[in-house]
Amino acid sequence: MKKRNLLIIILSLFIGNSVVAQQQAQNPIIHADVPDASIIRVGDTYYMSSTTMHMNPGVPIMKSRDLVNWEIVNYAYNTLGDSDALNMENGENAYGRGSWASSLRYHNENFYVSTFSSTTGKTYIFKTKDIENGTFEEISFSPSLHDNTLFFDDNGKTYLIWGGGKLNIVELKDDLSGVKEGTERVLIENATEPIGSNYILPAEGSQLFKANGKYYLFNIAWPRDGMRTVIIHRADKITGSYEGKLAFQDKGVAQGGLIDTPEGDWFAYLFRDYGAVGRIPYLVPVKWENGWPVLGENGKVPKTLDLPANEGWIPGIVASDDFSRKSGDRDLPLVWQWNHNPQDGYWSLKDREGFLRLTTDRVDTSFLNTRNTLTQRTIGPKSSAVTKVDLSGMKEGDYAGLGLLQKNFGFVGAKMLNNKKHIIMVNGASEEPVEVESIPLNQEELYLKAVGDFQDRKDTAEFYYSLDGENWKAIGNELKMSYTLPHFMGYRFALFNYATKEAGGHVDFDYFKIEAEKNN
């Protein structure tokens, strides 16, 4: 009897602990490409901006009530500009560029997002009163201030801090339309110094915060033979002088800043380079000691956090879409982004009700230089996308289907060759893309599936097709996915259509279904 009672107690404790674990948040907070985060809290609501570079609309704005479960609610801009690179014209593109590393602020009942672009050579500040539903007013000026952090100080002045290694500060004009002449100065001559002189990446990714009357500047750096590291500098005045220290070094989780909860708890939000799925966000608890934020649990990234449990990333970050729209609906839910600037006359949800129609506007040579490719993030640890496509509008030389977009891409789809259709799988992981398999197709409708496995950085993908939506067959070979700096982005599921001989062909996508496993 005693043994039985002891067993019941042990089981109860185990079950209780399991329930507690399930009720806690888990790291990573989002197992998807959400890098360069900037987070603010307004009342009991959190907002986050992130980097999506060459994708449009750009600079996603996300919302959360608990720091854990996020949904995309807006974008800072629809397009960043009108140029050959952004339009993917005349052999140019903006892969890995576009806009980077935004800074999100709330000041005098207005929301502000600052960012910069080496593609346009400008610094941008976007402003709105309604961050969830409003349109942002654009303010821009030259030059492009790299990795800048926007800061509204208590004395009414507005500053930008930017740079890499050597960090600079400027004061902005009252209307934020440019730099006040004569205000630029070096803020920290060598911000990398806390990790020594032997490094791969100097201190960059600045984010400035004020807490308990002091200024705290966060940066990322990367010591050679080490890992990405958080450096923090502290000062009594925004203009310095600053003292710095190595603040956190675990798993390469770095770059970000500070956020507090309404209850007074503090966290650091950071990200980790995690292979093909991209740069994924983490939270670590923060305690204050001797006027410094101390990050992590015993200097480590915790697996679980004393925050509400993750509910999954569907539909807040990615979502299925049947392409049916009611009056008042957005043409495209916010989870979708175009690869480069969209060509609005060549895609439609109205030409055929309940379908996304992609029409070719020119002749191209590759999946990578195709415009109007519509994308969503892949999700770890494993995710899949399924679509059904009507190919009856294809022209000779057309290619269409479902891809995994990065420099080393792969796709499954159909091609029109000699007036006959073929199901194909293309592997673009080598220097020249290879059509691995081609199968004759004798019908107009085709079902396609792509599965990405990012568990423990396995980073492989497999492709399938079906003629009836029920019986699936593997096609081609395994794609070895890799995160490449030329694209600087995690892999994206992508719907595409391009012409190699004659423009004007179209395909109709009936739906897009995405599934993702939650963290273990």
Automatic annotation (TrEMBL):
InterPro entries: ConA-like_dom_sf (IPR013320), GH43_C2 (IPR041542), Glyco_hydro_43 (IPR006710), Glyco_hydro_beta-prop_sf (IPR023296), Glycosyl_Hydrlase_43 (IPR051795). GO terms for biological process: carbohydrate metabolic process. Belongs to the glycosyl hydrolase 43 family. SUPFAM superfamilies: Arabinanase/levansucrase/invertase, Concanavalin A-like lectins/glucanases. This is Glycoside hydrolase 43 family protein. Residues 321-515 form the Beta-xylosidase C-terminal Concanavalin A-like domain. It comes from the Bacteria. The keyword Methyltransferase does not apply. Gene3D superfamilies: 2.60.120.200, Glycosyl hydrolase domain, family 43 (2.115.10.20). The keyword Transferase does not apply.
